[in-house]
Amino acid sequence: MDSPAASALSHRLRAATHLLAVLSTTPLLLSYILRQYLSPKASAGVLATPPARQRTVLVTGGKMAKSLFVARALWRAGHRVVLVETEQYWCSGSRLSRAVWAFATVADPRKSGAAYLADLQRVFEQYGCDTFMPVSSPFSARYDAMFLRGKQPQEMQVLNDKDENDGSGVSSSSTDEDSTIQRSTDKESTVTREKKECVRDCRNLHFAASVCDILDDKHSFWKYCTETLGLPSSSSQDSDGGMLPSHRFISDEEVLVLNKQLQEAGTKDKYVLKNLGYDPLHRLDLFCLPADGVKVTKYLEKIRADGNGVSEHEPWQAQLFIDKGVEMSCFAVLRDSSLELFTCALSSASQLRYVHAGRTPEGTTTPAKRNAGHVPLIDAQAAACRKWVDAFCAALREKDERLDGQLCWDFMCTNDGAVRAFPLECNPRVHSQCAVFGAANGDQRRFGEALVGSARDAVLVPDMATDAEAETHFWGWWANEFYSRQDTSLLLRLLEMLHSFVSGVCFLLGLSHGGNARVFRYTQACDENATWYTSHFSFKDSDFDAEDPLPFLGRNLLQPLVLFWGVLLSGNEWTKYDFCIGKVVQKNGD
After folding, report:
1. Which of 168, 234, 249, 328 has the most CB within a 10 Å radius?
2. Which run of H or of E encompasses 576?
3. Which tens digits make up the pLDDT trace of 509-521?
4. How many angstroms separate the first and last alpha carbons of the chain?
C-alpha cells in the first residue's frame, strides 16, 4: 500500500484507540462527579440578583473551556448567553450548559471570513443580542474585531466613532478593512433610547482589528510599547526589567547578518528565534543566536523544510533570551486603558494548571492559613508582573491610547538580587487561567459583571480568603491530568498494548508501516512550575460545576468522541487531543 494510505491507517488506528479510551473513562468521570457532590466543601455558585438591564451576549469559541467559563460568569451575573462555534464543533460540550441560553454554529473563518462575519450577524439578530463577547482563537481574533465595528445599529456606531475620534491612539479609528465590513440593511432605522444608553455605559469588550495586529505580533508589540508608549527597552541586566530587545526578519540572509554581528560584538547575551505567527512545531525549539554559522544555516533549512521558513509572508523574530528565570502568565480586563481585573499564575509550556499567585490586596481579608507554596519569592514575582501591567496601563492613558478588551501576557521573572519581570508576548484574548475566579465565593459572578461594564471601585483579583479551596486546590482539566500519566495508568497501558498488537498485524499484512510511536502523546509536565502545583495543591476540574454538571461530561465524552470519529473517517494526520481547547490537533488544522 502506498505511503499516504499507510499513514492514514496509522492515524485511524490511533483515533480508534482514543475512542476506546474516552469510552473507558466514563465510569471514572461519573465517579469524579459523585465525589464532588459528596465532598463536605461542595458549595453552589453565587447567582446575582437580576440586573437593571439584562443583556443578551453573543459569545464565540464554544469548543474551548474558557468560553464555558465566560458563559457561566455572564449567567451568574444575570445575563443571557448565546454561544457559537464553527460547524465542525457542533458537538461542543458547553452547549449543554445551563448558562447557555442558545447555541448556534457559524462558518469557519479559515475558509471564508466573509461567511463567518455574515453568520455572526445572522445569529446576533436572530436572538436579539445587544453585546458581543468574543472568546477568540488566534486566527479569529481579527475577524471578531471587524464584527465588533460592523454589527451595531448605525446610531450606536456613530456614538462609538465619536468617542474614538476624541483620542489619537491606535484604537481611535479602524482600518480600511474594518470600515468596509458590510452592515446589516434589514435592521430598523431607529434605535431605542435603551440601546443608546447601552453604548454609553458598556462598550463591547474587544479591540479594533488594527490593535489586534499590534498586540498579537511580538515584534510590533515591542515597538508599540517602546516607541509609542515610551516604556523602556531593557537588557537582561537592567534592575527594573522591561521590554526585551527584538529584531524582525523576513529572510534567511537577515538572520545570518544578525548572527554575524552578534559574534563580532562578542556579546554574552543570546537571542532566541521565534516565529511571529502561531507555530506549534517550533515554539519549544529555543534556538539561540549567536551560534556557529553552519548550525544556523541548518536550522533555517530545517524550518523551511517544515513549511515554516523565514519569509515576508511568515516573518520571524529574535528576542533577547533569558535562560535563568521563572515563567508567569497574566490575564487582565482593560476598560478605557484602566485595569478592571487581574490575575497572575506560575506557568510553563508543558502544563495547564492555575492558582492565583501574589499577596492578598490591602483592605481585603487575609486567608487564615496561606498555602506553603506561596513563598515570598513567588509573591514578589507576581508583584513585579503587576507593576509592569500598571505601568503599561498608565502609559496608555498618558498617551491617550484607549484600549478596551481582554489581554494575556507571558512574563519571564528573574531574581539576581532584585526581582524583575520581562514581558515576552501579549495576546488580545481571554486566557484559560480565568478559571481561578471561582463560583463559590462570587468571584465568577463579579468577573461576569466586569465583562459587561459594571463599575468597580478596585481591581478585581481572586479572593483567596473567602474561597474554601483557593489555598488547597489548583484549577486544571481532568483528562489532561489523566492522560499525562500514561506510564502509571493500567487502562492506558492496556490500550497501548492493544494498539501495538493491531498495528503489528497491519504491518505483517503490508497495510501500514512499522514503528513503535506512542499512542497517548501527552507529556507529564515535570518542570519546576508544574511540580509546584502538584506538590502543594490538590486537583480541581475547571469544567465541573455543581450547579451545571452536564458540560463536564459533554467536554470529556461527547466532544472528543465526535471529533475522534471524524479523524477515524478522514485519516488526517494528527498529534493529540487538547482537552482545554477542545480540539484534535491536526496538521493544517485550526
Report:
1. 328
2. strand 574-578
3. 555 555 555 555 5
4. 29
**CA–CA separation, 520 and 577 (whole Å):** 9
pLDDT in tens, 307-325: 888 998 889 999 998 888 8
Res 151 pLDDT > 50: no
CA distances from 61 to 65, 88, 237, 278, 563 (A): 9, 12, 41, 17, 16
511: cell is: 497495510
Question: How far apart are the C-alpha atoms of 187 and 395, rounded to whole Å?
Answer: 40
**Amino acid identity, position 586:** Q
Give DSSP secondary structure letters for 464-522: TTT-TTTTTEEEE-HHHHHHTTTTT-HHHHHHHHHHHHHHHHHHHTTSS------S---
Residue written as grid cell 515554539: 283
Q: Three cell numbers at 135?
A: 472568546
C-alpha distance from residue 557 to each of 88, 479, 482, 544 (Å): 16, 10, 14, 13
Burial annotation 132-143 (CB, 10 A radius, 16+ → b, else e)? bbbbbbeebbbb
Cα–Cα distance measured from residue 471 to residue 467, given in angstroms and rounded to the nearest whole number: 8
- Measured distance CA(329)–CA(382) in Å, rounded: 9
Q: Is residue 523 over pLDDT 90?
A: no
Give the mean pLDDT of 224-239: 77
Contacts 24+ apart (CB under 8 A), 389-398: 389/330, 389/332, 389/339, 389/342, 390/339, 391/231, 392/225, 392/229, 392/231, 393/334, 393/337, 393/338, 393/339, 395/225, 395/229, 395/230, 395/231, 396/169, 396/229, 396/334, 396/337, 397/336, 397/337, 397/338
